Amino acid sequence: MSHVSVLTPSLRASWQKQVSRSKGLTAAEVREKVPSDASLACPIDNKLFRDAVKTPCCGKAYCEECIQTHLLERDFICPNCSKKIASLDKLLADKPMRTKVADYIEKAMEESKKDGGADESGRDGNTQQVIVLVITILNPVLTHLPQI
User: Fold this and answer.
1) Together in a domain, 68 and 106
2) What are the two backbone dihedrals, phi and then psi, of residue 48, each rounded to the nearest 5 degrees?
3) CA 6 – CA 127 distance, rounded (Å)
4) Does residue 56 carry a pLDDT above 80?
5) pLDDT, greater one: 110 or 17
6) DSSP assignment, residue 47?
């Protein structure tokens, strides 16, 4: 007697996501998470700074795109100190912050690899290796089964 499990599209996507985790986080995945260091988060989108810039009036750091959008939509008024900013050209690249963010991303990626891709569910690298093996073995079979 044989037993075959059918993976639905959503379950298949979940399996594929689990498999990719065993390789560690990508830079894009790190950027999407709320940073553990709040000083690296943009006050507008609460995500890791992307191309950090400072306002000329009060020196507050923002993602370049976030502050540009804010200024264009709100008559060039600084969201922190409410002073008028003459133009987008007045925003200053925050090179030290950009370096901190790059270091943070690199460290987070390396730590995720060391953790063996363990995620919030507590699965470790060994469990994921078994999952990868099962998917690898079953994948040709599963692709030919009707989807439910």
Assistant:
1) yes
2) -55, 135
3) 20
4) yes
5) 110
6) S
Q: Are 54 and 85 in contact (CB under 8 A)?
A: no
- Residues paired with 41 in a beta bridge: 48
| Angstrom distances, CA of residue 130 to CA of 15, 19, 60, 140 | 12, 10, 48, 17
Handedness of CA 94, 104, 27, 39 (dihedral sign): negative
Tell me how far apart the terminal alpha carbons of the chain are, to the nearest angstrom: 22
Identity of the residue numbered 78: C
Classify residue 5 by its DSSP letter. P
- Using alpha carbons, list the distances in angstroms from residue 91 to 49, 71, 101: 15, 11, 18
Range of the domain at 143: 1-24+115-148
Spatial CA neighbour of 61 closest among 76, 47, 75:
47
CATH code, domain carrying 68: 3.30.40.10
